Amino acid sequence: AVYEPLPCTALSAKNVLALKALFNIAHSMASLLDSSWDLILRTLEQLDRIIASSKTSVSSRASAELAVATSGGADATSNELSILSTALAGLFSSTAQLDATAIGHFLTALSTQCFASLAYEATSKEKAAVPGVVDATPRLFGLNKFVETTLHNLHRIGELWPLVTQFLLPVANHKTARIRVVGMESLSKVLVASMRHELSARRDDDDEVSVPAGVEGDAWDRLLLAPLEELQRRCAHRETQERILQATHQLLQACGAGLREGWLLILSILWRAATKPTLLPLLPLSIRSLQLVASDFLPSLPPVCVLAYVEVAAAYAAQTEHLNVSLTAVGLQWTISDSLVELGGADAPAAATP
After folding, report:
1. Residue 35 to residue 109: CA distance in whole angstroms
2. What secondary structure letter does DSSP report for 6?
């Protein structure tokens, strides 16, 4: 079947009762719904559109079309929509209580729904016919709720991370520019939040830290950063590459002090930005991260990463596309030397290529 968003129609009294019953089913039978989540979420997407329209409508006629057919009039309408809106938000926050199988079905249904809506957003003739709408940010219920659900389940992000990246990476690399932007912003938001949560949990010695099978010790940050580095290697779109570098800078600002095995992936991202011809125009963006490492994290870099950082800085100094970037990178070599002297770096670590 071809996906097409359901129209925003009036909510009758029967509609309201049916939606309340649907919420009761979703809460009480969540672990048993499996693939039925797809049908439930499609219905909730229509509810979300109606609620959004009721908040943005400026026409009395449009407001009347959205009115709930109850004897309470306008006050009852506003009250019913408020209750349904609260119930909708509560459903996604309650996913934190689902077991591993149920949350898997829930996220899979959301991703399936979102891919269908992405196809519609990318090919809709109606959007192309309206001036100024082509570049507008698409309203993607499935994507937004997927991110929201993931953020409610950060306590088990290690288990969910393969499913999360399997969905978000194709969105960030979508053929449509406006969808790539939304997808990359979603990936960045989830990645930063996940790393902050994992750092906080380890700082508090939390016994419930979520680490998937096969990941030991400090390798959790490498697990989270690997999809970002992979996306940079495979993606050819300027919008995505730019936001990868922005996400890298945000990660360093928010979580740089807690990075361990993820440093080599960060350095690999920065090294590629200075050596891949198509990324050279973005050097003024990536040099910020290179400077941040030198000013804030160089003393805490693992020994294997020190020479890797020297090589990355040398790549920025050697490029000829941006003179100011080159001069800045040359200056970083003095910073590196001073840091090594302070650390008593007579024992040089073995060379490592990013």
Report:
1. 7
2. P
The gap from C-alpha 337 to its chain's centroid, in whole angstroms, comes to 37
For the beta carbon of residue 56, count every other beta carbon within 10 angstroms.
8
Reading the block at residue 109, the tokens are 């249904």
d(CA 134, CA 137): 8
**What is the rounded CA–CA span in Å between residue 287 and residue 196?**
23
Q: What is the pTM of this model?
A: 0.82
Cβ(247)–Cβ(195) under 8 Å? no
Residue labelled with tokens 């004897």: 71
Computed from CA positions of residues 201, 203, 206, 212, in that sequence, does the dihedral angle turn out positive or negative?
Answer: positive
Return all residues near 197 (Cβ < 8 A) that are at least 6 apart: 154, 155, 157
Q: Which of helix, strand or coil describes residue 325?
A: helix
Query: What digits encode the pLDDT tens for the residues 81-98?
Result: 889 999 999 999 999 999
Who's near 4: CB < 8 A, 6+ residues apart? 120
- pLDDT above 90: residue 297: yes
**What does the alpha-carbon distance between residue 276 and residue 270 come to, in Å, rounded to a whole number?**
10
DSSP string spanning 164-182?
Answer: HHHHHHHHHT-SSHHHHHH
AA identity, residue 252 = L
Contacts of 220 (CB under 8 A, 6+ apart): 158, 198, 209, 211
CA 302 to chain CA mean position, Å: 28
Q: Strand ranges (DSSP E) for the chain?
A: none
Contact between 1 and 117 under an 8 Å Cβ cutoff? The reply is: no
